[in-house]
Write a structure and sequence with these properties.
globular
């Protein structure tokens, strides 16, 4: 896996972008080669309450989300699949991961 950007901020929305599900700090965008293309994996650190919300949504079968990834290099938008949240038991260990098959699109400022 290759890190494309790190130190970003990741906002995850419902698939219709009607509401924010969570805002994640210390976000990273990595690329994982797969047969026929690249998966774009975006990971961020969630607070305990945000982690619990993502865990609840994942358990309820919600898996399609939209997102905005912002770093010093720019802002990017896309659609993704919500992967199962993980917690390694350490401070800052509440990780939320999403996977986008299509490369996120650069956000154009108005």
């Amino acid at each position: 896996m290759e890190t494309r950007m790190s130190g970003g901020y990741l906002t995850i929305f419902t698939s219709d972008r009607a509401r924010i599900i969570g805002e994640l700090s210390d976000a990273t965008w990595t690329e994982e080669p797969i047969e026929g293309g690249v998966n774009h994996i975006l990971t961020g650190v969630a607070s305990d309450g945000t982690y619990d919300e993502f865990l609840r949504l994942n358990s309820a079968g919600v898996d399609h989300v939209s997102f905005e990834f912002v770093s010093d290099e720019g802002a990017y938008l896309g659609d993704a699949v919500l992967l199962r949240p993980t917690n390694d038991g350490t401070p800052g260990g509440n990780l939320i991961r999403i996977e986008a098959v299509h490369e996120p699109t650069a956000k154009v400022s108005a």
